[in-house]
Amino acid sequence: MPRSSLQAPASIVMIRPHHFSPNTETARDNHFQTIAGSDTIAVALAAHEEVTRAADALRAEGIRLHFFEDETRTTPDSVFPNNWFSTHPGGHVAVYPMYSPNRRAERRQDVLEMLKRDYRVQDIIDYSGLEQDGLFLEGTGAMVIDHLERVAYAARSNRTSEILLERFCTHFNYEPVVFDAVDARGKPIYHTNVLMCIGTGFALIGLEAIPDAARRFELAERLRLGGRDIIALSHAQIADFAGNAMELQGRDGLVLALSSRALRCLEADQRATLARHVTLLPLEIPTIEHAGGSVRCMIAGLHLSARSPHSF
Q: In the chain, at which end, N or C, are there fewer CB atoms within 10 A of the end residue's CB?
């Protein structure tokens, strides 16, 4: 039997955009974002093709994929659904308040209806109304969740309200662990999942990005408590999205989905450490990465029990 893990979902949601473009509104605090060029039609077509190829590669590994189309022109970041909802063992779903006003239209009732139809959903807690109070928590972008140790790690930013994080952790029974993280220029990193990925037997973490030495040591030791191998990422590797990866349950075992750019920047010993735990699955998504996110941002994992068995 292939190895399975509570940390690694076997089913996911992805959104394929038809009019992708980097979001000028989010560029104010997402310093990983670049403008992909002036030919908007070419950019949109390239992104559509990248998502299509990524979805095919994930399906080929035996990962169950729920694929939704976005044909609107008003949701440039819809390819990143993990920011507006998350799912949790026991049948729990959360819907989140988004920092940028033009991202709030990404929340989709059809996705929530699919979850209720195909999975055992006990409750949906909707925090989105707290946008009116200036409280934001952008899902598993703002938090990197350790489902095995019941911890929610979160770097402070405009997109992570500590008040709302505490509320989420109370509702969903996680321990909040908050820290500061900055890029090579000393600017706050907008999402925790850019610098941190927690797998079953490993953790990728940008220790260089945590300026407080004592806090850096505490986080590394906390992650080691679960017996994980710690793979420390440099600022340059974080900028190449090496931290923005996701462990998934494939047909033949655990898979780490990451971008081709991320894989290229890893050192040989880092790749070897990962290979002891997972099969590496690189996805070529250079156009999507212009929007300041990578593979992890594109995947909303489903930590829910299916209503009936499914074949792949």
A: N
Amino acid at 109: Q
Measured CA to CA, the distance from residue 261 to residue 197 in angstroms comes to 16
Q: Residue 154: how many CB atoms within 10 A of its CB? A: 25
What phi and psi values does residue 147 have, to the nearest 5 degrees? -70, -25
CA distance 195 to 212: 15
> Whole-prediction pTM value?
0.94
Question: Which sequence spans correspond to the domains of the chain?
Answer: 11-301
> Angle CA(192)–CA(194)–CA(199) in degrees, nearest 5?
80
Superfamily of domain 11-301 in CATH is L-arginine/glycine Amidinotransferase; Chain A (3.75.10.10)
Q: What is the pLDDT of residue 16?
A: 98
| Banded model confidence at residue 312, pLDDT cuts 50, 70, 90 | very low
Q: Which two tokens stand for residue 178?
A: 């908050």
